[in-house]
Automatic annotation (TrEMBL):
Protein name in the entry: UvrABC system protein C
Single Gene Ontology MF annotation: excinuclease ABC activity
Positions of the GIY-YIG domain: 15-94
Organism taxonomic ancestry: Bacteria, Pseudomonadati, Bacteroidota, Cytophagia, Cytophagales
Entry keyword set: Cytoplasm, DNA damage, DNA excision, DNA repair, Excision nuclease, SOS response
Organism per entry: Aquirufa nivalisilvae
Keyword DNA repair in annotation: yes
Role of this protein: The UvrABC repair system catalyzes the recognition and processing of DNA lesions. UvrC both incises the 5' and 3' sides of the lesion. The N-terminal half is responsible for the 3' incision and the C-terminal half is responsible for the 5' incision.
Subcellular location: Cytoplasm
Cellular component terms (Gene Ontology): cytoplasm; excinuclease repair complex
Domain UvrC family homology region profile, residue spans: 337-479
Xref: Gene3D superfamilies: 5' to 3' exonuclease, C-terminal subdomain (1.10.150.20), GIY-YIG endonuclease (3.40.1440.10), UvrC, RNAse H endonuclease domain (3.30.420.340)
Protein family per UniProt: Belongs to the UvrC family.
Self-association and partners: Interacts with UvrB in an incision complex.
GO biological process, alphabetically ordered: nucleotide-excision repair; SOS response
């Protein structure tokens, strides 16, 4: 029986900020909430119960006891609520942690610190940076750091007394240049800690000081006329510069901000978080939260902001969001931008959270339907790219050349999500000289669809361009020139971060890396690349054979091409009967060719 009597308890409640806890018949906490005014908030559960949703009415029916804690402010209530939810995990509260444990990079607390990876935080071990939602990006960062700074990887306890005693010997890492041998006193602790300071700055997303460090080292080496050493420092500076350039740069004028966007439906909220450091996106994550009661969107967002800022060790003084936070954080500005670079940043976050929600919904619908896998993937792709119809015919373009020689452009076609190799086409650029990828893309796309229009053939439902904004823009120029721009959906895929670009949209789309639709796009891109590379190699091989045949007396370029077309290889020409050669060259020229090739082959 429910012994809780709200009529006798509610009048005694304080009108102060605080945290309240509801207990069931087993004296288990079933809900924890915060309130700006405890009396008003708790009373709302027991006044006009018909206005509550089913889950809230079920919660009220199970309340047998109430406890509350008065705090100084609503912000203090948020902190206490957050702590108690993590501790007790009541069944009617949204859970702030998802089921994934993301990895961290740890700089160990030891003499001559090491770079380690961990999924659990133990502050006694070292200083942690992260978490990294994408382990591949973490591994790429670690690889770059080890290339820049020769740190030790061994687990030896490098006490100075043991080093002086000669207890340790350098290992293979020293001999191949990956470590400077602090275990044998070949590197001072002061020199080593300089590296650690630069690594710490990079892990925080601050690149300027490490780049200046390399510049100073390079200049110092140059002044000593140690030019090889100066070149090594320059290469390290360039490596760091290139790594920074791979990050999505927003605007250097936007320093440290956190960006949060939220969209919700009846049961779930979807939140995207982007951490911006010195104008560069250093962390990005999108996740869903299952709502237990009819929580306000602002409350859900505020709780998640506090949780993720703590998890990602963010100290940014500005939070950009698409709705106002329920509570102001002390010393932190909440911005809802309407225009400018900050609005573009928010739009990027919103675009990712909306596609995350759509991808989740489509995946769930496909799983429940149990339908054909190919159709499911095409439906997912249609929804991910906002296409008006199912992309049953997809064509993908890729350019291939070697320093501008033997250029070839490949077009592959997928029908119903599978390769249709009879529809593949190769293009040799006719109007472009040298390695001009953009001009080549404009030419071949224009030639392809001009011909389809002339033949009144079927146009594709989707065009994919292997490349970023530049290649996509070049392809769009071709479609505009022949008057079909806007009639066929077209996208570009950049290999570096697998970004999807749309025409006239500067913000890329990041489809979930596990999404079947992204895998289909990647399959098309990779198949176009394979087809183009194979054709490029064959073309180089044929051109080499033609040039070899041209060296023979009496054989010009046209004759060499005829021989290549008829026989394929020099070996086949050598083994061919005289009658076959005479059909192509005539009797005297065939005899001369036979003798020359025989001497050549021998």
């Amino acid at each position: 029986m429910n012994s809780f009597d709200p009529k006798s308890i509610l009048p005694t409640l304080p009108e102060e900020p605080g945290v309240y806890r509801y207990f069931d018949v087993h004296d288990t906490i079933i809900y924890i909430g915060k309130a700006k005014n405890l009396k008003n908030r708790i009373s709302s559960y027991f006044v006009n119960p018909k206005n509550h949703d089913t889950k809230t009415r079920r919660l009220v029916q199970q309340i047998c006891r109430l406890e509350f804690t008065i705090v100084h402010s609503e912000f203090d209530a948020l902190l206490l609520e957050n702590t108690l939810i993590k501790q007790f995990q009541p069944k009617y509260n949204i859970l702030l942690r998802d089921d994934k444990t993301y990895p961290f990079i740890c700089l160990s607390h030891e003499r001559f610190p090491r770079l380690l990876t961990a999924r659990r935080i133990d502050h006694k071990m070292g200083t942690y940076y992260g978490p990294f939602a994408n382990p591949k990006s973490m591994n790429a960062l670690l690889e770059m750091l080890h290339q820049l700074f020769p740190l030790r990887t061994c687990s030896l306890t490098l006490k100075q007394s043991a080093i002086d005693y000669g207890k340790f010997k350098v290992c293979l890492e020293y001999h191949i240049g990956n470590c400077k041998g602090p275990c044998e006193n070949l590197q001072s602790e002061e020199d080593y800690l300089q590296y650690i300071e630069q690594i710490s700055q990079i892990l925080k997303g601050h690149y300027q000081k490490p780049k200046q460090f390399f510049v100073e080292k390079m200049q110092a080496a140059a002044e000593k006329l140690a030019f090889e050493q100066a070149q090594e420092w320059k290469e390290k500076w360039q490596l760091l510069e290139n790594f920074q350039a791979k990050s999505t740069v927003v605007n250097p004028a936007i320093h440290d901000v956190d960006v949060f966007s939220i969209v919700s439906d009846e049961q779930l909220s979807y939140i995207n978080f982007m951490k911006v450091t010195n104008g560069t996106i250093t962390q990005s994550q999108t996740w869903e939260v299952k709502k237990k009661l009819n929580e306000e969107e602002a409350d859900v967002l505020t709780m998640l902001i506090w949780e993720k800022r703590d998890e990602f060790h963010s100290s940014a003084k500005e939070i950009i969001s698409n709705i106002p936070m329920a509570i102001e954080f002390q010393g932190v500005k909440n911005t809802l931008p309407q225009m400018g670079d900050k609005r573009k940043l928010l739009d990027m976050s919103l675009k990712n959270v909306l596609y995350f929600r759509k991808e989740k919904a489509d995946r769930k619908a496909a799983e429940e339907s149990g339908g054909d896998r190919k159709m499911r993937i095409l439906l997912t792709l249609k929804n991910d790219l906002h296409l008006s119809k199912l992309p049953q015919r997809i064509e993908c373009f890729d350019n291939s050349n070697l320093q501008g020689t033997n250029p070839v452009s490949a077009m592959v076609c997928f029908l119903q999500g599978v390769p249709a190799k009879k529809e593949y086409r190769l293009f040799t650029p006719k109007t472009v000289e040298g390695p001009n990828d953009f001009a080549t893309m404009t030419e071949v796309v224009g030639r392809r669809y001009s011909r389809l229009l002339e033949e009144e053939a079927e146009l594709p439902d989707l065009i994919i361009i292997d490349g970023g904004k530049g290649q996509l823009s070049a392809a769009c120029d071709a479609l505009k020139a022949i008057g079909i721009y806007g009639q066929i959906p077209i996208i570009g895929i950049a290999k570096r971060l697998e970004e999807i670009y749309f025409p006239e949209d500067s913000l890329p789309l990041y489809i979930d890396k596990k999404s079947e639709s992204l895998k289909l796009i990647q399959q098309l891109r990779d198949e176009a690349h394979r087809f183009g590379i194979t054709a490029h190699r064959n073309k180089r091989s044929k051109n080499f054979i033609v040039s070899q045949l041209e060296e023979l007396d009496g054989i010009g370029k046209l004759t060499a091409q005829k021989l290549l077309k008829k026989f394929g290889t020099i070996k086949n020409i050598d083994e061919a009967p005289m009658e076959e050669l005479e059909k192509v060259l005539g009797k005297m020229k065939a005899l001369s060719l036979k003798n020359q090739i025989k001497n050549w082959v021998d």
